[in-house]
Amino acid sequence: MKAALRGVRWLAELSEEALDDVIEAGQEARFAAGRTLLGELESGDDLYIIVDGEARVTVAAGQAAPLQVATLGPGDTCGELSLLTRELRSATVTAETEVRALRIERLDFEPLLARHPRIAVHFAREVAGRLRDADAALDGMLERGAAAPEASRLTGRMAAVTPTRGSFARAWRELVVSRSRELPFVALMSFLLTLILIRLAVWAAEAAGAPLFALLRGAYTSGIALVVLSTATALMRFRPSTRRWIAIGCGVGFALIVNELSVFLAFDVFYVDMTTRDPTMVFNVEDLYRRSESQWAIALIALFLIQATYLGRFYRRVWFIAGARLRRR
Fold this sequence. Notes:
The chain is of the alpha+beta class. It folds into 2 domains: about 1-130, Jelly Rolls (Sandwich), CATH 2.60.120.10; about 180-329, no CATH class. The chain contains 15 helices and 8 strands. The chain has helices spanning about 1-5, 15-25, 80-85, 105-115, 115-145, 150-155, 170-175, 185-205, 215-235, 240-260, 260-265, 265-270, 285-290, 290-310, 310-329; strands at about 25-30, 35-40, 45-50, 55-60, 65-70, 75-80, 90-95, 100-105. The protein has a 4-stranded antiparallel sheet with strand order 1-8-3-6. A hairpin with a 7-residue loop joins strand 4 and strand 5. The protein is elongated, with a radius of gyration of 26 Å. It starts with a helix and ends with a helix.
């Protein structure tokens, strides 16, 4: 592997120690001819350095049929821009022949850039080159119209000038599939699915005439345990696959807690203090669970988590602008 990477133009200048770091940060991956390395509109959590073989780059957005825009060979990389910008991938990369590549995930790539600035310089030049090509293609389009041959050079690089046809499938990929590796989204989906499943389980138990107290107590205590465990382990450093399981545990735990929200809040009504029940009030877990107020509260919590997941960047931007304006005043 090291001898092959020495042939990669932006790795050839690295020291032996730096090259060992690159190899240690990555994992060797092999793709038979016809297999896909990267998919258009997928989230970018990794990049590939092609060591052997050839691959074709195609885009489908705005095209009647997939359009081939480039061919990659040994020494080329793919997926690096999505990895750096955290945007959706703009093209599909498919193995033309058998491909051997080094795959580097985001969790390992960012420390690699910090330790070896030469690698960061290469990617800065790569981004600058693509911006230069995009500017040249835009100039050609302005001079000769959108049908100019230069327009094809923008396809897959500049989404703003690539016409796309709206569809439910595309919306599903952009809103759900493309976010499947984002930890907030994983926690949100785990929360919603668990909330639905536990509600169905309680409804089935109630329909069967089974007592709900033991089921609700078990779900609530399990939720607390999952939240505590996932919060504690989140402070440690894990690989992306393990971090996704931690996010799932956090979402499941919060759903089990929120499911008993009405029972939990009703202690303020039915108890004089933490240990003494109010003798004038009738305490019934089943009636508390069925209160419509809790269902509205759960719905509001779910809506809040959904919009917080999808509008997190917007809120951070608003907070930054508001803070900057307050400091100026």
